[in-house]
Specification:
Blueprint (H helix, E strand, L loop, with lengths): L1 E5 L2 E3 L21 E3 L1 H15 L5 E8 L3 H11 L3 E6 L6 H15 L3 E5 L10 H9 L3 E11 L2 E8 L2 E8 L2 E5 L11 H7 L4 E4 L32 H10 L5
Parallel strand pairs: 1-4, 1-6, 4-5, 5-11, 6-10, 7-10
Antiparallel strand pairs: 2-3, 7-8, 8-9
Length: 249
């Protein structure tokens, strides 16, 4: 079984995001970038499938600027067999990414496509669902457990009322949640080996995909600062303030 994993290069989750002075976007200058945490979980699951003998090959793909090669090399060091970069300087929106991934799916014909449920930079939670629709494949989102057996995937996912279990006929698209696994760190020997693993660079033109943005960002602003708290002398005063001054959200 071939597994295709999509990963995204995002601002590291430990970095405080800064907005550009002209409100045109987020400042990326001298900012540490890393693999989207949800995509790390997707990659870890694919590598575990390979180690268990369920998968024979793990292919990792990323869309974006040339620096995404660093993210792909990290994925190769973690355990992926080869990588594909769809290089472009155009700002990619979820639909464009889904169309690019669909083109890669058509070329690679994987039995399973895994990606994180969302990226921590835009929190769109759309790409996996759009990809499944474009490729006309069954999908299971927010997976907290995945079992592959006899050409089928049994996926457990969290819903508002508890847990839900879905059975999908492969090929299928699965998006991962935080509770699926704990991603590993790349070891130094594997980092060195990753430099020799194949990494193909394509362009949207090579895949004949239109990635023109459908949405326009008008402005990016930081959230309003929180007001300072107030110390009250007793419980009665607190209750009075909650009744008369608390804002209902």
């Amino acid at each position: 079984m071939k597994v295709l994993v999509a990963v995204k290069r995002v601002i590291d989750y430990n970095v405080r995001v800064r907005v550009k002075p002209d409100a045109s976007g987020v400042d990326l200058n001298a900012v540490k970038m890393s693999m989207n945490p949800f995509d790390e979980i997707a990659l870890e699951e694919a590598v575990r499938m390979k180690e268990a003998g369920t998968a024979k090959e793990v292919v990792v793909v990323s869309c974006g600027v040339s620096q995404c090669q660093e993210t792909l090399r990290t994925a190769l060091a973690i355990g992926a067999d080869r990588a594909i970069l769809i290089e472009t300087d155009v700002e990619l929106q979820p639909l464009a990414v889904a169309k690019l991934l669909k083109a890669v799916v058509d070329r690679e014909a994987p039995e399973l496509i895994i990606l994180g449920k969302q990226a921590i930079d835009d929190d769109c939670n759309q790409t996996g669902q759009m990809l499944a629709s474009l490729a006309d494949l069954p999908q299971a989102t927010f997976a907290s457990k995945i079992e592959i057996d006899n050409g089928e995937a049994c996926v457990t996912r969290e819903i508002d009322g508890g847990m839900e279990t879905l059975k999908l006929v492969l090929p299928a698209v699965i998006t991962t949640d935080l509770r699926l696994n704990q991603p590993r760190y790349a070891s130094l020997p594997n980092i060195m080996k990753a430099k020799k693993k194949p990494l193909d660079v394509l362009t949207p033109g090579d895949l004949d995909v239109d990635i023109s943005p459908r949405l326009k960002t008008l402005a990016v602003t930081e959230p309003a600062g929180r007001k300072a708290g107030v110390i009250v002398p007793d419980v009665a005063t607190l209750i009075e303030k909650l009744k008369n001054e608390a804002r209902v959200i």
